[in-house]
Structure formats: structure tokens, C-alpha cells
Design a protein that fits this description.
By secondary structure, the protein is mainly beta. 7% of the residues lie in helices and 45% in strands. The chain contains one helix and five strands. Strand 2 and strand 3 form a beta hairpin. The chain is globular.
Length: 73
Amino acid sequence: MIAGALHPHIGRTIRVTTLEGHTHEGVLVNADGHHAYLQVNPHGQHRPVYTPAQYNQIITLVLFELLVILLLA
């Protein structure tokens, strides 16, 4: 049910807070029955450019461990 609610928001910037209190912000790239996939950019970190993957990481979040999902843009 949560994944279905997230699908219209794929491609939008969201902020997610987990039950453990961790906060992640990025673009929702996919959601399936158990996971949300969030593309995050490391803010304020200076790293040399080697590959695009260093700047656009995708993290997998378990839907049942999320406390708050906030649409930002």
C-alpha cells in the first residue's frame, strides 16, 4: 500500500526519516513492495571526479522502517 502511494511521486525530491532517526534526502527513483530507492547527492563534500556514481548514489530504504516521508519539490 505504501509503495502504491509513492509511485506517483517517482522523480520528485523527498526527505525520509527512519524509525532509528536517520534522515535521507534525495530523488525517489523507484518503489516496490518492500523498498524505496532514493538517489542521494553528498552535500558539502569535495571529492575528485572519477565516476558519476560517486556523486549520484542510490540507497535502498525498507518501507516498514520509515517513519516520515516528506515531499520537498
